[in-house]
Amino acid sequence: MERYSRQILFQPIGEQGQAELQNKHVLIVGAGALGCGNAEVLTRAGVGRITIIDRDYVDWSNLQRQQLYTEKDAAEGMPKAIAAQERLRSINSDVEIKGYVMDLNAEQLEKFCSGGIDVIIDSTDNFETRLLINDASQKYSIPWVFGSCTGSYGLSMAIIPGKTPCFRCLLPKLPAYSLTCDTVGVIGPAITMTISYQTAEALKLLTGNEKAVRHSLVIFDVWNNDHMFLRTGKMKNEACPSCGDMRAYPALYEEGQKAAVLCGRDTVQLRQSHAFDFEELKQHMERINQPIQMNPYLAITQLEEHRVVLFRDGRVLVHGTKDSVKARSLYQKYFG
Ligand SMILES: [Zn+2]
What we know:
Rossmann fold, single chain, binds zinc ion, TATA-Binding Protein, 22% strand, alpha/beta
């Protein structure tokens, strides 16, 4: 226990909190900047199990702030879920860590939740996935910790089914600028601040300190020196379709995951109904005389002025466009 001695000395956690922590399973959705930081803090703290899900791969522009990744990961185009898994395992081999390369949908999320998750950490970059997490959280009664970060500002709050308003209830109160997909860049200190708020609430929930959870939405801007706490006690909407009396869980059953244009990324995601056979793909690319670079998880090629990435599970990312019709026709031109 030498490893966790400083955390055990911290009175609200103590031996008992540490023991509880080691029996908990955390699901982290997203392995970008927030996912990396949340995962590292919780791995070092000694959570029992961490499952981390991400749909993307490591790119050079990620290295400025995504603390688990190295230049080697970017050069090899490693999927973030795998690169994060490897790095986290080397940080703390006590923790059972599993990364999944997937674009989370309702069915998969329900499978994870029904398998026994204690806390979900939101590290996504889009509201569609947050609404999905929110509905699953309510349906399976699992608390989750919302976190969002853009530019120099961030937001965070722990959402506990039956005790706090849900995320859908809060939506009308969120600042409009946090809802857009505009690319305004982001700086490291805003991210680490968001991660601190998220992991503090997660540690409270995981060590039997739910009473210490903050019942307000924190909104801050580390550049313009604003920091405020919005009380959320009265924000619950009794008619909310996610947490109200007549629940329908619309994100799980109706809204679907069809948005193909990735938020602020100049990238379109296409889905093929079949998984890719990489051996076949390699032969095809040789026949049409196009270069391709592969690792066990994904294949990267350059088609005209677009970088195109094909994942084993049948997803395709077409970079350099926001036009889904153009992306689909480019794909069809080369792959039929
Ligand atoms: Zn609600």
